[in-house]
Specification:
This protein is about 30% helix and about 30% strand.
Length: about 260
């Protein structure tokens, strides 16, 4: 008798399983749930076609058949996509929201890489990538953030300066910085503006140094017959040295 009950239970379980499989197949092949709309939010650099191709989603796909977790994983595998969200909207829409990476600077480690606003390397530089970014030199791979280990002090200093420069009203906005040279002993030196102006920042106290630099530049811009500015030394914030180079004369040093 007990054996008959077991057999009956197994037959019932098989029947229920078959019913679920049949129902799943019916739903995932039903035209009612075919994607008539693929809505993408957060596009800036990437085109719609690139995102759909990366997600492997096309119009007409059954939205219940889409594996949301796998689709998100495919999207964030793209170097320009920092984060993504994928969801269904019944009965016939797929919603994709992406967060594109914002390139902050180019890092020269023998090969050039792009870093984002989190200081993470996200791709090797290609000629088709933005080329107006500040170029960082003087660092090594050991300075970078790996597996949750904090950045080296030199790289942290670079990121502090770059984040100040994200404000276009900054004393030296990033789009005017050509190069950031790192010296482990002396700190950071910027090549900015017309490629010939050298700004020695050293280490630390960057917000205050940028305020003082803004004041110095404002003062110099008010002067008549302003000579070329070759170098501004902000290592000692209480003793700022401006080096100018007038045609036909030797370098002229001024303390501001």
């Amino acid at each position: 008798m007990s054996g008959l009950k077991v057999c009956s239970g197994l037959i019932l379980l098989a029947g229920v399983s078959s019913l679920f499989v049949f129902g799943y197949d019916l739903l995932t092949q039903c035209d009612y749930f075919s994607a008539r709309e693929i809505r993408i939010q957060g596009m800036h650099r990437l085109a719609r076609g690139q995102i759909c191709s990366q997600a492997r989603i096309s119009p007409g796909v059954n939205i219940l058949h889409v594996n949301l977790a796998l689709t998100r994983k495919r999207l964030v595998a793209h170097p320009w996509i920092g984060d993504a969200e994928v969801r269904r909207e019944l009965p016939d829409a797929i919603i994709i929201r992406i967060k594109e990476r914002i390139p902050l600077a180019m890092l020269d480690l023998g090969q050039k890489f792009l870093i984002d606003t989190n200081g993470e390397i996200f791709k090797k530089y290609r000629p088709s990538d933005p080329d107006h970014l500040p170029l960082i030199s003087g660092l090594t791979y050991s300075d970078l953030n790996v597996a949750g280990v904090p950045h080296g002090s030199a790289y942290s200093a670079v990121l502090d300066v770059l984040r100040l420069g994200m404000d276009r009203k900054s004393a030296v906005p990033n789009h005017l910085i050509k190069r950031i040279q790192v010296d482990r002993e002396m700190g950071l030196t910027l090549m900015a503006f017309d490629r010939t102006t050298v700004i020695k920042l050293g280490y630390g106290n960057y917000p205050d140094k940028y305020v003082r630099l803004r004041n110095v530049l404002s003062y110099l811009n008010r002067q008549s017959n302003l000579p070329d500015i070759r170098q501004i030394d902000l290592n000692n914030i209480d003793r700022i040295i401006v080096n100018t180079n007038m045609p036909g004369t030797s370098a002229d040093h001024k303390e501001v």
